[in-house]
UniProtKB/TrEMBL annotation:
InterPro entries: 4Fe4S_Fe-S-bd, 4Fe4S_Fe_S_CS, DUF362, PSI_iron-sulfur_center. Signal peptide: none annotated. Pfam families: DUF362 (PF04015), Fer4_7 (PF12838). The keyword Aminoacyl-tRNA synthetase does not apply. This is Ferredoxin. Coiled coil: none annotated. Ferredoxins are iron-sulfur proteins that transfer electrons in a wide variety of metabolic reactions.
Length: 385
C-alpha cells in the first residue's frame, strides 16, 4: 500500500505552507521518513515546473512560496541542494529569475543548474526505451524531489508529478519525443521510463491554486487549497485526478499505462490517503481539458485510431494573437503544420490538420493564450465533450 498525504492549505503564505508540509511529512513517518528519503551528505535536486519565462506567482509555474517552504525543510537534512529545469521554451536562467525561485534559492544557498549538460544512460527493464539522453543534473542527484503544479493538459488530460519530469529531457529533444510518440499511450510509457531513469524520489504537488480549462499554460486559475505529497508519483497523480473529477483514474493515459505495467500504485484501493479525505477535498465544477473516455478501449491500436479521430483541434482566438509565430517555431512536425495568413489586417496562424499530431505544444507555448482546443463533432457525438 502506497501512502500519500493530502493536505488543505488555503494560501501561499510561506510559513503556513511550511507548517502544512511538516504535517504531511509527520503523517508519512516524520523525522525517520525524511532521514531515509534524504540520507546524510546526499545531493538533492528540486525540480520545479518553469514551462517558460513566466511571471512569479502565476498558476502556470511552481509557486516561489512552495519552493521556499520545501527548501526550509530539505535544508535540515542536506546542505547540498540544487534546483533546475529545462522549460519548453525560453532561457532557463531567465525563467528561474522571473519565477521568483532564483531569489529564494540565493537566500538559502541553493544552487541553480541548467539542464543543458546531457548524459547518455541505459535503463534496465524499461517499459519501452532502454537508452536515454537526459540532463545530467537530475541523473547525478542522489535525491530528486519533483515540485509540479496541478493543471489540465490538452494532450495528456492532466499534468502533475509524472509529467513534470519531462523537463529532464534537454531542450529541443522534447520536440523530437513528441514527433516520435504522437499518441498519449506511448507518450505515457516514455514518461514513466523517464522517471525510472531519473529515479524521482518524492513529489510535492501544488494544487493550492490549480489550473482548469485551457491548460497547461493558458487555462483559468482554480483555487483548490490542496497539497498532495508522496513517494509514489502515480499515487500522487491518481489522488489529484480524483479531486478534479476523473472518478475513473484509468481514464488518464499515464495512470492506465502505470497500472497495466505495474509501474506504480494507481487504484484507490492501493493507496492509503493520510490527512484530509478525498470526498472533502473534491473540487466541484472543475473544468477539465477534455473527457478521457477513449482511453478505455481494450486495444491500444483502436485506442489510438479513435483518439486521432476525436482529439480536438488547436484553433486561434484571433483577437488575442499578436502574430509572433512562436506556435510555428515550437511545432515539432516537419514540414510545419502551421502557416500564416492575413486576416482583418493581422497575420494569424492556419493549421494543416491532416499533418497535426495533436501534441498541443503550440497551445502550451503561445505567449498570449491565443490558442485553444476545439472538440470535433465526432467527439461531441461520442460524449467526449
Ligand atoms: S497564436 Fe500565439 S504563438 Fe501563434 S502567432 Fe498568435 S500569439 Fe504568436
Ligand atoms: S500544430 Fe500544434 S498540435 Fe499540431 S503538431 Fe504542431 S505543435 Fe503539435
Amino acid at each position: 500500500m502506497e501512502k500519500v498525504a493530502l493536505l488543505k492549505c488555503t494560501d501561499y503564505d510561506v510559513d503556513n505552507i511550511e507548517k502544512k508540509l511538516r504535517e504531511g511529512f509527520e503523517l508519512l513517518g516524520g523525522d525517520s521518513f525524511l532521514k531515509e528519503l534524504i540520507p546524510e551528505n546526499s545531493k538533492v535536486l528540486l525540480k520545479p515546473n518553469f514551462l517558460s519565462v513566466i511571471e512569479k506567482g502565476s498558476p502556470v509555474i511552481t509557486h516561489y512560496a512552495v519552493f521556499e517552504a520545501v527548501v526550509r525543510i530539505v535544508k535540515e537534512y542536506s546542505s547540498n541542494i540544487v534546483f533546475g529545469d529545462s522549460p519548453g521554451s525560453g532561457d532557463t536562467k531567465k525563467a528561474a529569475e522571473k519565477s521568483g525561485l532564483m531569489e529564494v534559492a540565493e537566500r538559502y544557498g541553493v544552487r541553480f543548474v541548467d539542464f543543458n549538460d546531457q548524459t547518455h544512460v541505459e535503463l534496465k527493464n524499461p517499459i519501452m526505451y532502454k537508452f536515454w539522453n537526459i540532463a545530467k543534473a537530475p541523473y547525478e542527484a542522489d535525491v530528486v524531489i519533483t515540485l509540479p503544479k496541478l493543471k489540465t493538459h490538452a494532450m495528456m488530460y492532466y499534468t502533475g508529478a509524472v509529467k513534470n519530469q519531462f523537463g529532464c529531457v534537454p531542450g529541443s529533444q522534447k520536440a523530437a519525443w513528441h514527433t516520435k510518440l504522437p499518441d498519449a499511450v506511448n507518450f505515457s510509457k516514455m514518461l514513466l521510463d523517464l522517471n525510472s531513469v531519473v529515479k524521482t524520489s518524492f513529489a510535492i504537488l501544488d494544487g493550492i491554486i490549480a489550473m482548469e480549462g485551457n491548460g497547461p499554460r493558458n487555462g483559468t486559475p482554480k483555487k483548490m487549497d490542496t497539497i498532495i505529497m508522496g513517494k509514489c508519483l502515480t499515487a500522487v497523480d491518481s489522488t489529484a485526478v480524483r479531486l478534479i473529477g476523473y472518478d475513473n483514474v484509468l481514464s488518464i493515459p499515464i495512470l492506465k499505462v502505470a497500472h497495466d505495467t505495474k509501474w506504480g500504485a494507481v487504484m484507490p484501493e492501493e493507496i492509503e490517503i493520510l490527512g484530509e479525505k478525498v470526498e472533502n477535498m473534491k473540487c466541484k465544477n472543475f473544468k477539465l481539458s477534455r473527457n478521457a473516455k477513449v482511453i478505455n478501449f481494450v486495444s491500444p491500436s483502436l485506442n489510438n485510431f479513435v483518439a486521432s479521430l476525436t482529439a480536438p483541434n488547436p484553433v486561434v482566438i484571433e483577437e488575442k494573437c499578436i502574430g509572433c509565430r512562436k506556435c510555428s517555431e515550437v511545432c515539432p512536425e516537419k514540414p510545419k503544420v502551421i502557416s500564416f495568413v492575413k486576416h482583418n489586417n493581422k497575420v494569424i496562424p492556419k493549421w494543416n490538420y491532416s499533418n497535426c499530431i495533436r501534441c498541443f505544444c503550440c497551445q502550451e507555448l503561445c505567449p498570449k493564450g491565443a490558442i485553444i482546443t476545439k472538440n470535433k463533432q465526432l467527439s461531441k457525438m461520442l460524449g467526449l465533450k
